[in-house]
Write a structure and sequence with these properties.
The longest helix is centred in the middle third of the chain and has 19 residues. The strands form three sheets. Strands 2-14-8-7-6-4-5 form a seven-stranded parallel β-sheet, sandwiched between helices. Helix 2 packs across helix 10. By secondary structure, the chain is an alpha/beta fold.
Length: about 350
């Protein structure tokens, strides 16, 4: 019997407005992770609460089943060698083997020239469909057009592309969940909003990052009225920029009493926490990342709250992306209907639940 992963359909205009893309969006489908009871369709109001996601009527069935034939699936990895994408790649390969399809791999390497090269290579390899991640802002039409011109169906993840099925978390809502967690932490510590600074670590001109940072700001302010002047953008261009940039901010603001930090992904979140620890804010700061990547899970498993400023990661469950991506592209190749947008649930992973959600 094939395994069915039920993905509840939710046409919600508010989510579509938060995608970080100016194009007109398609109806959204909320994809609940397959095996965890802790994932929820929307960010929980109380971060400690764990709920079973409800199945919506008219759900899309992402079925892991034998494909009609051994299709050749192109896979353009967003950036190999980082924990997040390695988790995605491992799961894609496992599900592809289970469904009896072949993966033709190419690393887009978070580089425009390489992404174009990979996309053309996959077309040259005569793949039947494509799964890809392209995070170079402004190149969405270019990359999607390569596949459309070749008549190849496509599924993109963590960044919508015109004419391709878009899979990935609602970035704004992921940020909201992070902000809600930070606000709850500050309130538990008894910090006053006017005495608390909010640092937003994100990369300018990357819509996904902006959506997450905007969501984090709104999530904090839902219950913790931090003043405008206490909110600070920490712009970064690369993964190694966070530590020095946050350290520079701390040096320039020696009178800051309490600090909340949001990282657009886990490495910036962990590095922001480390910079604040080194600047003397241990016990007076909290940092959150997104993605449930290895660097976040290691900190949550191996260090206590008293030892670490890093407090939580908002998980997209990347280790299960393949359970949606591979069935979706196979369905497209075989002429089955797939919603134009699939949204996995997000959920905070903390020291209280990390061993339940990610036992290692």
């Amino acid at each position: 019997m094939p395994r069915k992963l039920i993905v509840g359909i939710a046409v919600i205009a508010l989510l579509l407005a938060a995608c970080g893309d100016d194009e007109e969006q398609a109806p959204a489908t909320t994809a609940a992770p397959a095996t965890t009871a802790a994932a929820v369709e929307e960010a929980p109001e109380e971060v400690a609460e764990e709920e079973e996601p409800e199945e919506s009527s008219g759900a899309y069935d992402a079925v892991i089943r034998p494909a009609e034939q051994r299709w050749k699936i192109g896979y353009g990895d967003g950036l190999s060698g980082i924990p997040f994408t390695d988790s995605v790649t491992d799961n894609i390969n496992a599900i592809a083997e289970e469904m009896g399809v072949d993966i033709v791999y190419c690393d887009n390497a978070y580089d425009q020239e390489k992404t174009v090269e990979c996309s053309n290579l996959l077309v040259t390899q005569e793949v039947d469909g494509v799964i890809f991640a392209n995070w170079i802002a402004g190149t969405e039409e270019l990359i999607a057009g390569i596949f459309h011109d070749a008549g190849i169906p496509c599924v993109s993840y963590d960044g919508p592309h015109p004419g391709c099925v878009a899979f990935g978390p609602d970035n704004y809502e992921a940020g909201v969940a992070a902000g809600q967690y930070l606000a709850a932490f500050a309130q538990e510590q008894g910090w006053a909003p006017e005495d608390t600074e909010l640092l937003l670590v994100w990369t300018p001109d990357v819509p996904v990052h902006k959506a997450r940072a905007d969501g984090a700001t709104d999530g904090v302010r839902e219950s913790f009225a931090i003043p405008d002047e206490n909110i600070h953008d920490i712009p970064t261009e690369g993964l190694t920029d966070t530590l020095p940039n946050v350290t520079t901010w701390a040096t320039a603001n020696p009178d800051a009493k309490h600090v909340l930090c949001f990282g657009h992904s886990d490495q910036p979140g962990v590095d922001c926490a480390l910079a604040l620890e080194q600047s003397g804010y241990l016990g007076h700061a909290a940092a959150v990342g997104t993605g449930a990547s290895t660097e976040a899970l290691v900190d949550l498993r191996q260090r206590s709250d008293e030892e670490s400023v890093f407090k939580a990661t908002i998980s997209y469950f990347p280790e299960r992306y393949g359970t949606y991506l591979v069935p979706a592209i196979v369905d497209l190749i075989e002429g089955n209907t797939v919603p134009e947008r699939l949204i996995p649930s997000v959920f905070p992973v903390t020291r209280d639940n990390v061993f339940d959600l990610y036992p290692g």
